[in-house]
Amino acid sequence: MNNSKKVLILTYYWPPSGGSGVQRWMYFAKYLKQLGWTPFVITVDEKYASYPSLDQSLLSEVNDIRVIKTKTREPLKWYSLLFTGSKNRGIPQGEVKTNGFLSRLAAFIRGNYFIPDARKGWNTYAQAQAEHCIRNEGISKVITTGPPHSTHLVGLKLKSQFGVQWWADFRDPWTTVFYNKDLYRSARAEKKDGRWEETVLQTADGILTTVGGSLIQKLQVKAPEQSFHVLPNGYDENLMASVPRTNIVEFHVVYTGLLTENQDYSPVMKVLNELAGQYEIRLSLAGNISSSLIEKIKQISPKIAIDYKGYLSHKEAIGLMKSGDLLLNFIFKGADQDMISGKLLEYVASGLPVLSIGNPDSEAGRFLDSASHAQTIKANEKLALKIFIDGIAQQKVKIENKIPDLKKWSRQTLSEHLATLLLKED
Fold first, then answer.
1. Chain-centroid distance, C-alpha 173
2. Structure confidence by residue, pLDDT tens digits, 344-366
3. Are residues 390 and 414 located together in one domain of the fold?
């Protein structure tokens, strides 16, 4: 095998970790292999990792990929144990809780003593295995992906030590990520984190991001001579085609994924409750959603049937999507400009109408604007929400949501683009 087509991928999230964060490099590894590459993956052994959810079904997607699993040191497990009695149930996702002294103290410790992040305890183990793999396999290309952005510090050392071609992948922003504002960071902590980010941005051979626009503009200020490449999240064409579209009697509204108090869900629930006088409505939710939040939704929307499915495997989540008449998306407050989630790509690929709550003049908003039956609406625009939902309900099961050049967003096509980038930079 030509060493130029070997690539080492360092990713904290890997099957059987569940959730959307794992799927990006799981699929890139899978399709790079089909394109004649030999990916090697260094990740955390799930026995030691802080994974909020597990999806064993994802293992079948990468059963022929060479994976090296390591130990780690995980303060987040003790955070979770303190607040929930479980080492995994309370691992923070999508929001930073600040209600109560202990929560604020935990946020302060996380923001000021774990820089760049609380998963940096993995770096020592990942570094040792990466050095071993590079020496034994003759690998000259390395990819690190964050969050956790502490993983990029391993890439920094490998670049210095071996002179490898190193790509740093920013799935989400680093210092400007929306939840950093809730971590009570001191000026000293912000400065230290900013220095790490700048060093990574300026030293890597190339930076990958999931979106362009404002995210790249923010990063370019810190590394004006760097080469930035947009490599979006995508959808798996084969999986989407394998799951049939189904139909239920009620007007079926579906939400999948993480849902927190940092997303504006309440106005939509109120509108659905008002429309329940005209339509029989069922709302199905699946993913990491707290019982208290489910209860709030039930209180806001007493007239609609609410069905919480819990955490589903990826294929089951696609099946739930494709049984819907309308798919809901709630962008995290403060994250409008910097993210287009993989879930949103799957929503659009399903062919079903999509309603996203957020800023229409954002990366995600502009993406949805190109679809035939999808819209991004601000949470406080109640009339616009009602008109859009009512219009979809009137045409139940008759609508196909189309978007131009959908295939360019497929995981296969994106992997071909990645392969071209990796070879072009030799």
1. 11
2. 999 999 999 999 999 998 888 88
3. no
